[in-house]
Design goal:
This protein has helices at about 30-45, 60-75, 90-95, 100, and strands spanning about 5-15, 15-25, 50-60, 80-85, 105. The longest helix is centred in the middle third of the chain and has 16 residues, at about 60-75. It has a domain at about 15-80: STAS domain (Transcription Regulator spoIIAA), CATH 3.30.750.24. Strands 1-2-3-4-5 form a five-stranded mixed β-sheet. By secondary structure, the protein is of the alpha/beta class. The protein has four helices and five strands; from the N terminus they run ββαβαβααβ.
């Protein structure tokens, strides 16, 4: 199995502040992911923050927990957080563990 270095890029898609994830979002990438996610939520109060996981090869449970925490922080600032994902395997995982009941999951930013 090959480890893919985590790359993060932020930008705007429509009115949504978006964090684009490329590579493996595992324990080794947690500090980098946490910093980027917390910063994006803090800099964009009262708006929808999207995390695009389509470029992610692996997303472990720690990263999902961070996303749940960030959603809570966004909501406390009168905003929200959503995940963009089109991969069938990832969508199934998000549905099976109940993540999609706590955080909006869509196939595109415009679909949120």
């Amino acid at each position: 199995m090959r480890c893919v270095d985590l790359q993060l890029r932020s930008g705007r898609v429509r009115e949504c502040a978006t964090l684009f994830v490329t590579g493996d979002l595992d324990l080794s990438g947690v500090p980098k992911f946490t910093t980027a996610l917390v910063r994006l939520v803090a800099e964009n109060p009262s708006v929808l923050v999207c995390v695009d996981l389509d470029g992610a090869g692996l997303v472990d449970d720690t990263a999902l927990g961070l996303l749940l925490g960030a959603a809570g922080r966004a909501r406390s600032g009168r905003g929200d957080l959503a995940v963009v994902c089109t991969g069938k395997r990832m969508l199934t995982r998000l549905a099976e563990n109940g993540f999609d009941r706590a955080v909006r999951v869509g196939s595109s930013v415009s679909g949120l």
